[in-house]
Amino acid sequence: MTTPALLPLSGRRIPTLSPGASSFPHHRATLRLSEKFILLLILSAFITLCFGAFFFLPDSSKHKLSSQAHARLSTGHVSPDSMEEEESLRDKIRADHERALQEAKQKLRKSKKALLHEIQTEKARVAQELKKKDVPRSLPPVPMPKLVGVNDGDPGEPDVKEKRDKIREMMKHAWDSYRQYGWGHNELKPIAKKGHSTNIFGNSQMGATIVDALDTLYIMGLHDEFKDGQEWIEQNLDFSVNAEVSVFEVNIRFIGGLLAAYYLSGQEVFKAKAVQLAEKLLPAFNTPTGIPWAMVNLKSGVGRNWGWASAGSSILAEFGTLHMEFVHLTYLTGNPAYYQKVMHIRKLLAKMDRPNGLYPNYLNPRTGRWGQHHTSVGGLGDSFYEYLLKAWLMSDRTDAEARKTYDDAIEAIERHLIRKSNGGLTFIGEWKNGHLERKMGHLTCFAGGMFALGADGSPGDKAGHYLQLGAEIAHTCHESYDRTVLKLGPEAFKFDSGLEAVAVRQNEKYYILRPEVIETYWYMWRFTHDPKYRQWGWEAAQAIDKYCRVGGGFSGVKDVYSSNPTYDDVQQSFFLAETLKYLYLLFSSDELLPLESWVFNTEAHPLPVLRLANATMPGSQAKR
Ligand code: DMJ
């Protein structure tokens, strides 16, 4: 076999050896071996070259040629212009190439140690970034607070049981209708029989009714329905949506609803979803003062305030109604951020001057100054006061600062806002720049329950006084129902010019399935066991069933003074979360969710008292 002449890369000729050219066989064999070795070397150099060429050739995808240039190159019709364009592209490719080569060379010049250090630092940085974005997937285990009173709550007496069964049937009708016509939408249009939503949920479709209704279903023993809701949440509830939502509403309905469902059922998914959502709300606190925006875009994290709010202000009842849920979030996750956010709000408010000791409804999150000096225990103010009291109750009565703030606020409210009408009805008016408007909202009626709930623990000898005040408010609100044709209460009612507990303006005559009056009946029932509260609750339940029930669920009505009312065609999610829950509890025994162990958030979602002696929250001084 002859060995072909080979042209080495250098151009120097390698002598060809023919068989028998050497008389020294051993030498010949040696030569053959080295020849093979050289051949192998050359071959491997060639392969390396091919590989190198493959990897170092410019990646054309990184260098965008215009589609025109591509077309011209492929057709071969190349004009001088396009030649110039191509040449400049080639120059760019060469330059890029050169730069990449230089960078690589520089890197290679560094010592192994320096390179390793660089890699480690970069790895740590990326890990840190991911950690910041990451929502805790498995949350730290915390002892579940001892849950008292999660039971059937059988009231015993058959006639009470019958009423309770009726409320359960109403819940089933509301839920089944939503299930059939509005599933996955935020709310339901029970007449049009389709989904519904309002601006508080942005343009999201997050099944607000499902989340809001879960704990009511659980308490009523509607377990198949609860499971159905849970499945929807597991599979569909996603908060990475480009929707601008109300921080307050999402907190009280979604976070509150999910946390209550978690505590009652023990299903981890609810806790995980609550935490995911809370993470999405946190950017709302990125304001110069730490007072959160009213709205936040769940995707971008951009926040802003309602256009109608005085001087770009945030609303007292909105930023002041986060405490309960946020404290529970910190408790469950060990993440102090939630607790710190709400404590920061509290501290900031404590430092501010209060006109006549009252908290105005508006506070500017940029300047930290009050907006208009309007104070209300109804819309825009209500649940701020409620959460001061409930913060204290939820802390097993250890959060003395919250209790003191509540007591001071209520004292100022009593002095400036609470009056008796000529007819002897106690009402809570609205304070507007030093003037008392003698008008009370349906929303304000929750305060009867709040006064009763706060009676025990009030300073001095005033427990009896506050229980009495609660009873008077309950009576006034009942009057506002009783003085209508439908026996359902209007949105707002006056105590002026001979008018008592009746709405005057047409746009205040509606009833939208709100819970506040029934809520107060329930608290009063728990504290007094006066049968009139069950009686009043039953009147309201019957009126709702008679006038608000339609084929596709329950609807609000536009005029409670008309025997022929028109519907607003909305089944509000709070009807299932609150109105029906309070009614059900009113006809249950006190053993079901006792108030010593549970605190209801402002959307009626029960959260357990955290018996953590001495404020032992992560983020506070002491440790959990
Ligand atoms: C509910 O969403 C809450 O109770 C809130 O605090 C104000 N009122 C509505 C229902 O009326």
From TrEMBL:
Disulphide bridges, residue numbers: 445-477
Catalytic activity: N(4)-(alpha-D-Man-(1->2)-alpha-D-Man-(1->2)-alpha-D-Man-(1->3)-[alpha-D-Man-(1->2)-alpha-D-Man-(1->3)-[alpha-D-Man-(1->2)-alpha-D-Man-(1->6)]-alpha-D-Man-(1->6)]-beta-D-Man-(1->4)-beta-D-GlcNAc-(1->4)-beta-D-GlcNAc)-L-asparaginyl-[protein] (N-glucan mannose isomer 9A1,2,3B1,2,3) + 4 H2O = N(4)-(alpha-D-Man-(1->3)-[alpha-D-Man-(1->3)-[alpha-D-Man-(1->6)]-alpha-D-Man-(1->6)]-beta-D-Man-(1->4)-beta-D-GlcNAc-(1->4)-beta-D-GlcNAc)-L-asparaginyl-[protein] (N-glucan mannose isomer 5A1,2) + 4 beta-D-mannose; N(4)-(alpha-D-Man-(1->2)-alpha-D-Man-(1->2)-alpha-D-Man-(1->3)-[alpha-D-Man-(1->3)-[alpha-D-Man-(1->2)-alpha-D-Man-(1->6)]-alpha-D-Man-(1->6)]-beta-D-Man-(1->4)-beta-D-GlcNAc-(1->4)-beta-D-GlcNAc)-L-asparaginyl-[protein] (N-glucan mannose isomer 8A1,2,3B1,3) + 3 H2O = N(4)-(alpha-D-Man-(1->3)-[alpha-D-Man-(1->3)-[alpha-D-Man-(1->6)]-alpha-D-Man-(1->6)]-beta-D-Man-(1->4)-beta-D-GlcNAc-(1->4)-beta-D-GlcNAc)-L-asparaginyl-[protein] (N-glucan mannose isomer 5A1,2) + 3 beta-D-mannose
Domain of life per record: Eukaryota
GO molecular function: calcium ion binding; mannosyl-oligosaccharide 1,2-alpha-mannosidase activity
Membrane topology qualifier: Single-pass type II membrane protein
Binding site for Ca(2+): 602
Cofactor(s) essential for the protein: Ca(2+)
Enzymatic class: hydrolase
Protein name per Swiss-Prot or TrEMBL: alpha-1,2-Mannosidase
Disordered: region residues: 135-160
Lineage: Eukaryota, Metazoa, Chordata, Craniata, Vertebrata
Gene Ontology biological process terms, A to Z: carbohydrate metabolic process
EC nos: 3.2.1.-
